[in-house]
Each structure stands twice: as C-alpha cells, then as structure tokens.
Design brief:
The chain has a single domain, classed as Metal Binding Protein, Guanine Nucleotide Exchange Factor, Chain A (Beta Complex), CATH 2.170.150. The chain is of the alpha+beta class and about 130 residues long. The strands form 2 sheets. The protein has a 6-stranded antiparallel beta sheet with strand order 3-4-8-7-6-5. Helices cover about 15% and strands about 30% of the residues. The protein has 2 helices and 9 strands; from the N terminus they run H-H-E-E-E-E-E-E-E-E-E. Helix 1 crosses helix 2. Strand 3 and strand 4 form a beta hairpin.
C-alpha cells in the first residue's frame, strides 16, 4: 500500500510553483511542447508532488503529441485511473495514488506492439531521476 501524502493548497503552491500547482492540484494541462526534454539514459520518473514511482525510461516513447508519453506505468507504480468527462469529452484521467496529483490521461492510440496504450503525461508533473 502506498503512503498517502496530504498538504494544504498553500503548502502545495509553495512547493510546486504556479504552473505545476495548476496542473497537478487543479487538473490543468501544460501547453504541448512547453516542457523541456528529459535527460537521456536509463532512469525513473516520479511524481513531482510526492516522489512516488510512476514510469520508467524504458516505457517512454516519442508520440509527437507534445507531452511525455509512456506505454505503461512502472511495475507497482502509484497510478490511479478515473473517468474524466470534462471539456465535453470522455477520457481516462491518470492520477498519482499517493497524493492525488493530476498527471494527464491515457489513450488507446499508443504503439500496438507495446500494448496499444499512450499515457500522455504533463512534463511538469514528473521528475526524472537517472539510474546510478
């Protein structure tokens, strides 16, 4: 079971800054192609809010959509999926189970040879840690 992380809105805002706060705590979306690329090499992606493990570099792929894309969460990742009907669409929202951060959405248009899913994640919601 993943430890739950709770903070006040003021604490989240101070920790994250305005953009990351709006994305992770208020379910906003960063502009496509607005997040700088992540370093090369093996490593892991964790939640920018609480540090929970989410994705590995091995599952990342270039989808062309403008946001980091992954074919699957890391094994045992703190990922939650929920129905999202905002903006007149039916989508599946991806959240961090540890702190309830909004991460992005998952779609069925990923690489077929890798399972067909595309976890489309806001870059500002992730921290990349290279393997040692």
């Amino acid at each position: 079971m993943t430890d739950k992380v709770t903070k006040t809105e003021a604490e989240w805002l101070e920790q994250l800054g305005e953009l990351a706060f709006r994305v992770t705590r208020q379910a906003a979306t960063e502009r496509p192609h607005s997040h700088p690329g992540f370093p090369q090499g093996p490593g892991n992606f964790t939640c920018a809010c609480c540090g929970a493990a989410l994705f590995t570099k091995g599952e990342k792929f270039e989808s062309g959509c403008g946001w980091p894309s992954f074919t699957a969460p890391a094994q045992g990742a703190a990922i939650g999926e929920h129905t999202d009907t905002s903006h007149g669409m039916m989508r599946t929202e991806v959240t961090c189970d540890s702190c309830k951060a909004h991460l992005g959405h998952v779609f069925n248009d990923g690489p077929r040879d890798r399972g067909g899913l595309r976890y489309c994640i806001n870059g500002v919601a992730l921290v990349f840690t290279p393997d040692e």
